[in-house]
Amino acid sequence: MKTFQNCLALITGGSSGIGLALARLLLAEGARVALLARNPERLAQARENLLDAYPRAEISVWSADVTNAPQVTALLETFVAQQGTPDLLINSAGMAHPGRFEELPLEIFDQMIAVNYLGTVYVTKALVPAMLERGSGHIVNISSVAGFLNIYGYTAYGAAKFAVRGFSDALRMELKPRGIQVSLVFPPDTDTPQLAYENQFKPEVTRALAGNAGVLSPDFVAQEILAGVRRNAYLILPGFETKVIYVVSRLLGAGVNPILDYLVRRTLQRQRAEQNLH
């Protein structure tokens, strides 16, 4: 997909964050964009903001809960009947709720799997038959750095993002011979409303493991994603640090664990020292 002119792109989680940034960039290149998210008011606001910048653009909004398979299936059947089969599907809907394992209620584990993993599966399942019938399409699944290197505090979120990775690995092998491309994105911390929500719950150790790494802008991540789609890349690693972390984790394998253990131990020692001072 060298150009997005007249491309029909469906973006889940499209009312904010990376999804909205992708919509903005695609519209700038002449794409037709459909946003799918749960909140109708936020969708309407997102569409209005996009139309302010691109008054002649073709933008539609679709409200559905990606964790509700029957609702997603019915809505996307209507979508395909009215607008056609998407050339580009971007599964950007997701959420993170970190915390220590023993403190996280089971409902959080259910929610992380439902939104991040099953939401991706349900939307993809509803659209792949039409893509196969046409013989073309490109699916972009957004995971996380925690989807290849999980850390302290992400037993629920990271596991769900690992599931997105496993799903995408197999999906790519199945669909590529039939004309459909799959891309898998591992974004680091990105300055979105979701990150602000997540930061409320991060244990101190989780913050320390993130170190001094900068937070990327949604626009930068969106640019990296579309650049990867253009070259039919399977793995898309936004930002230099993400690429370094990915390569190092692949080279070291389980050898990365002593490094992470040291960082955890050092943070816990510092916390105890600060508590003793008080």
Automatic annotation (TrEMBL):
SMART domains: PKS_KR (SM00822)
Top EC class, one word: oxidoreductase
Keywords: Endoplasmic reticulum, Lipid metabolism, NADP, Nucleotide-binding, Oxidoreductase, Sphingolipid metabolism
BP terms from Gene Ontology: 3-keto-sphinganine metabolic process; sphingolipid biosynthetic process
Pathway where this protein functions: Sphingolipid metabolism; Lipid metabolism; sphingolipid metabolism
Family matches, as Pfam families: adh_short
Protein name: 3-dehydrosphinganine reductase
Any single GO CC term annotated in Swiss-Prot or TrEMBL for this entry: membrane
EC number: 1.1.1.102
GO function term, MF aspect, one: 3-dehydrosphinganine reductase activity
Subcellular location: Endoplasmic reticulum
Domain spans labelled Ketoreductase: 7-189
Assigned protein family: Belongs to the short-chain dehydrogenases/reductases (SDR) family.
Organism: Thermanaerothrix daxensis
